[in-house]
Design brief:
Elements lengths: L7 E9 L8 E6 L3 H7 L1 E8 L6 H16 L8 H22 L9 E9 L2 E7 L3 E6 L2 E4 L5 E5 L2 E4 L12 E6 L5 E5 L1 H4 L4 H7 L4 H11 L7 E10 L5 H8 L13 E2 L2 E9 L3 E8 L4 E8 L7 H16 L8 E2 L10 E4 L4 E2 H7 L5 H19 L3 E2 L8 E4 L3 E4 L6 E2 H4 L20 H4 L5 H16 L16 H6 L14 H9 L12 H9 L13 H4 L1 H21 L2
């Protein structure tokens, strides 16, 4: 999906064995298909096998090839930082394990590693060891990486960090803004150890391939392998709002649809719902008689690029996140002539209506529903996506019960948020009643923000549509306001609710994410079985607060009753 124009670069590379018996350097870059440049960027990497290691060449080649392949296999919604660290952590563990499996070989599979990802208008550096990344900008050369080495004599250095050297090393990461004309150099020490910053700067003024060849030539007296990659940014994604808007709105908005009308081979059966933002229509595919739902944008927002981007992302998220508890997005079989997307038809009812039909919901049924909401939400989180609008009206229930989360219109996607936009992105957040407080007091939302919404839904179900903080919730704006709110125990609305169940819900409704359960799995576990550590001891029954004292007291009272009754005979 093209959210905007793609970054354009020129490249050059050079590698020479030099006086050594074999080339233990590895290098490469990858410019992916245009449909994922916007979300994953352009990747380059260089590695230098540690000569003292028995498998230096294998280590560097595995690191570069593995990174360039595996990085593009990570989910598109993931942020660059998340993708890069996950891939490098896995590669490092593999290299380290290979070294352990050959204990007779000195140091095993060890190499330095430097990678540069160019995405939208941002550069991302991953680095470990003493290979380097330089940037030439407006005639000034700057080393962006930091060498992980220690000097033991004027001529001798040893690496303090490298891939494969230890099980869990620290890998440097930093990001920085790009400018047109920026030229980057990734090099091994066979290049930069012999050249001055001025020599490097002068060489990088040439076209990239000429610059790479020149740098290798200038360092020809090196006793080591000589390798480098040169990348020059020739243009960045469009910063013109009108151009971006033109791409987003290349399909016209469909008109209001009526039963019997057809759109791209789909026959409209009826209007399901209409809001200020979208319309949902039930349609039939005549060839298969399959019923689908068509979601169309509101004509009110036809000139709003932020709305158009968000609408396009809804389909994008659904196609890339498949799970039983998430509504399925369907690829159209015919070329679209207007702006819409297709969803599976779910013949269920909203969770709000389910609650109305079950005013005295059983805990087992509530836990079954909450567990499925958590499962669907975690599937989104694994794609670095926050739902941000979990509420009963966005959840459908089928017999079973089987739960389906719908509506991705408010989702926040880490990988997409990194893409620079020439227009202001507006957060389409959900209903205040179910949204976490950090959205209002300005803190960064996390997966625990969705956890707060799920806990609020659990309270809603078990108390027959009540809110845990009552009417005061709507007026709170600052963190101080939320800290002063008083949680209303679910037992106030339903005295049959166990105190431990109420305590589990309360824990995940803390005003700050740090006060909530550490994970959704922990929250769900505490809904399924008592965790008495969460209970307020002052609220516990005497028998649970101090069972030994309770039974001693009960025994004494019974003994006293027996004595009195004996005396009265």
């Amino acid at each position: 999906m093209h959210l905007q124009g793609n970054i354009q670069i020129q490249t050059g590379q050079s590698t020479h064995t030099g006086p050594k018996d074999q080339n233990e350097d590895a290098l490469g870059f990858r410019i992916p298909a245009s449909d994922i440049i916007a979300t994953k960027g352009i990747a380059s990497a260089i590695a230098d096998g540690v000569s003292a290691a028995s498998a230096a060449k294998e280590a560097s080649e595995s690191a570069v090839l593995g990174f360039l392949n595996d990085y593009y296999e990570t989910p598109e919604p993931w942020e660059v930082k998340t993708s890069g660290h996950r891939v490098l952590s896995a590669l490092n563990r593999w290299l380290f394990s290979q070294g352990l499996s050959h204990p007779s070989q000195e140091k095993g599979y060890v190499c330095t590693f430097t990678a540069l990802i160019l995405k939208s208008q941002t550069g991302h550096l991953f680095h470990i060891g003493d290979s380097r990344l330089y940037r030439l900008r407006e005639g000034k050369i700057e080393q962006l990486s930091t060498d992980h080495s220690s000097q033991v004599s004027p001529e001798t250095f040893y690496l303090t960090r490298a891939l494969g050297l230890e099980y869990n090393p620290q890998i440097d990461y930093r990001s920085f803004e790009l400018q047109p004309g920026d030229t980057f150099l990734l090099s091994t020490d066979g290049i930069h150890d012999l050249l001055t910053p001025q020599q490097i700067s002068t060489a990088l003024t040439h076209p990239p391939q000429e610059a790479a060849d020149l740098l290798a030539h200038l360092a020809q007296d090196s006793p080591d392998n000589r390798s480098c990659i040169v990348l020059k940014v020739t243009s960045l994604p469009d910063s013109d709002k009108n151009e971006v808007f033109r791409r987003l709105s290349h399909l016209p908005f469909p008109p209001d649809l009526s039963p019997g009308m057809t759109i791209d081979g789909l026959r409209i059966d009826r209007l399901l719902s209409a809001t200020k933002n979208t319309q949902l229509y039930l349609a039939t595919e005549p060839a298969t008689r399959r019923q689908l739902v068509i979601k169309t944008p509101s004509i009110t927002f036809s000139d709003d690029p932020s709305y158009l981007e968000r609408f396009a992302l809804e389909e994008w998220i659904g196609l890339r996140t498949q799970h039983l508890n998430l509504v399925k997005i369907i690829k159209p079989t015919q070329t679209r002539t207007s702006c819409y997307y297709l969803l599976e038809h779910i013949p269920g009812i909203t969770l709000t209506r389910w609650c109305e039909a079950n005013p005295q919901a059983q805990i087992a049924d509530v836990v079954a529903i909450i567990s499925q909401i958590i499962a669907g939400t975690r599937a989104l989180h694994r794609k670095d996506t926050l739902h941000q609008d979990l509420k009963p009206d966005n959840i459908l229930v089928l017999p079973g019960p089987v739960v389906k989360i719908i509506d991705y219109g408010s989702c926040h996607i880490g990988g997409i948020s990194e893409i620079t936009s020439p227009f202001e992105r507006h957060s389409a957040l959900g209903t205040i009643d179910f949204s976490a407080p950090e959205y209002r007091y300005g803190a960064q939302p996390t997966t625990k923000s969705d956890l707060f919404s799920i806990a609020t839904i659990a309270y809603f179900l078990i108390t027959n549509q009540n809110h845990p903080f009552g009417k005061a919730w709507e007026k709170a704006k600052t963190l101080r306001d939320f800290n002063h709110l008083k949680y209303q125990s679910a037992t106030r609305h339903n005295p049959m609710i166990p105190l431990w169940f109420d305590a589990a819900i309360k824990k995940s409704l803390a005003p700050t994410p740090s006060g909530r359960h550490q994970s959704m799995a922990e929250f769900l576990n505490n809904l399924r079985q008592p965790n008495y550590a969460l209970l307020d001891r002052d609220a516990l029954p005497f028998i649970e607060k101090d069972p030994i004292l309770f039974w001693k007291t009960a025994t004494a009272i019974l003994l006293l009753i027996l004595i009195i009754s004996h005396l009265l005979r």
